[in-house]
Every structure is written in C-alpha cells, then in structure tokens.
Amino acid sequence: MRVLFYCQHVLGVGHVFRSLEIVRALANHEVVMVTGGAEIDFEPLANMVHERLPGLMMSPDFKTFIPMEPGLSLDEVRARRLDRFRAVMAQYRPDILLVELFPFGRRAFRFELLPILKGVRAGEWGRCKTACSLRDILVEKPDPAKYARRVLDMLNPHFDLVLVHADPTLVTLDETFPAMADIAPPVRYTGYVAARSAPGAGTALRHELGLDTPLIVASAGGGQVGNELIRAAIHSSIILAETHPHALMAFTGPYAPDADHARCQALAANHPHITVRRFTSRFPAYLDAANLSLSLGGYNTTMNLLAANTYGLILPFTQNREQAMRTSRLEQRHAVGLLAPADLDPARLATRITQALTRTTTATPLNLDGAAATARNLEELVGLG
C-alpha cells in the first residue's frame, strides 16, 4: 500500500510530528509525506519519502501567507505548489491520499487541495481512496452553521473516511462539530496519537546528562508563541534552585524569534543547572526522563506527556478553545495541571512546580494507540484488513 500524506505547517509543528507517528505505524507500507512550510529537523524514516512543495509561512499577524522564496508573489507560489502537487501525484499514484485536518481546517490550502481531490475522484491517478486525519478538538468559528456547510460541501463528495485521533471517553467530535450527523463518510475514533520513546530511553538520557536531581522540561512548541512560559520557568527555576536542587531543560522552539531565544539564554546565564536550546529531535526521551513538564497545551506535546507518564503543568494557548478544553478535561482526570496566565508570576509558578513534583494522585488512562489504529483503518480502506 502506498499512502500520500499531505501535512502542512504554518503555525506550530506538533501536527507534523503526530503525522510522523502515523508514518511509523505504517512501517510495512510506503508513505510519501508532502509538506510545504519551513524546514523541520526530523528523523528520516525508512518507509517514507519526503516531497516538499514551494514554501509558505504565516505572516506575523496570522492573517495571510508569505512566500518563503524571495521575489515570488503569493499567486506565483500557489501556482507552483499546485503544479508540483500534481506532479507528485502522477509520479507516485498512491492508493490512499491522507489529508491532515482539511476540510475541517487548512481552508487557505483549498486552492491546491480541491483540484487534487477532484482529480482523485475523476481517476486521474488511478484508483485512490481519500481519508481525513483529524485531531480531537476543532477551533470555534464565528458562524458555526456556515462553517459546517462549507466543511460538508468539501468533505462529503471528496472523502471516503474520517479518522478522529481522539479517545471518545475524553472528547467526541460532535462537541466541536455539531453537524456530525450530516457527515457522509464513516467517522472512526482511533485513540490519541502519541510518540513513545524507546524503553529505557529516559533513564539512558538522564545518565548521559549526568543527572542525579529532578529534571524539569519546559517547552513552547514551535516557538512562535509561548516564550513568556519559558521565561517564567527560568525565573522560577532560579528561585527554587537553593531549596529544591534540580535541572531545567528549556526548549524555546525551532521558530522562536531570535530575540526571544537570546533573551532566554541571557536569563539562564550564570545558572549552570539551566540549559536553553531551540529544539531537540529527542523530545519524547526528554519527557520520559523528566520529573515534570511545563508546556503549552498542543495536542502533540500533551499526548507525548501522557505516553511518557510524566506529569505536566500546561498553559493553554488562548486564541481559541482547543487547548483549554483538552487541558481542563485532562486535569479532571488528574493527568495534568492547568496553568492560568497569573501562574506565570515566578514565585507563584515556583509553588505550583513544588506541588507538582510532590503530587500523589494517579491519572485515569486514555487510549494512546491512535497511530496503530490509523494504520489498520487505512489498510481496511483499501481492502487489506
């Protein structure tokens, strides 16, 4: 089976790494990963070919795209992307086109996705099924009814399957997409997709780092937002160092502005127990090694926390409901702690950290086998199951 997996990143990178976990679960099949954003440092996979479309990135005000190649207009990049996408489809002729989020999101990419989806339905590249790879919670829309109609108009004619990467005991799709009853293709819950480090990876990493004290890992996802959390973690770590010896590993994010990264490095200077880096490809191992995580509430980081069985204090991104909704429900299951903006006061955060490191409650488990279930569902879609 050959799967062409379309996954675009213009803000945040968590969904890319979630998609890579699905690629790993498809180890017995060939996957063509199609991206078109900024370069991401991820481990090459034996079963995956990476095809990049001409790059687009989000503008600083989050309102439009900016071409990554100087001198090209947005229209020129769009045309080149569609031409390249068509060429990739013709070259690989996949059995399945798997699309991350669209049409529930990524609407700005409809200029290239709708022509490709129509071409698939017309048999332009042979027999090919289509599936949507969907996260658990959708962001709210100003006109929900209009949004639902738009989604259904693109989903129902063009997709054969919707895979929701969630555990329905925590959240169901109809809670954030009320028109679920009008979805024509089958909707299947896979469980959450989570990256698991290799057995013993956390212990090995602690030995590699020479740690004999608790490890706190602070992270800000892609880094476009969340630097205030990293700064607060550094300030709190300095406060705690005298009474609660520990190590802090802070990741500002691969796309953090240079000034934000430099500011965090300056704050950590002269404090040898604090290390500031942009990014690590070994993030699941760091979470496995950690005694506590401080992070935003994106899907990927949150599920990696749960897979590592590491407690986390989470500051949800406030532009929409997604992270707050997920985090609050997980807090009810004693899996994480919810941080409010006021908790970023260094003394207050130091108290929350101390409490978290000494907690005794046990979390209610979730289904975290979403990658394997996704692979099984795709196999069934083409008659291999």
UniProtKB/TrEMBL annotation:
Alphabetized GO MF terms: hexosyltransferase activity
InterPro entries, per the entry: Glyco_trans_28_C
SUPFAM superfamilies: UDP-Glycosyltransferase/glycogen phosphorylase
Species for this entry: Pseudodesulfovibrio aespoeensis (strain ATCC 700646 / DSM 10631 / Aspo-2)
Domain (Glycosyl transferase family 28 C-terminal) ranges: 221-362
Pfam families according to UniProt: Glyco_tran_28_C
Protein's UniProt name: Glycosyl transferase family 28 C-terminal domain-containing protein
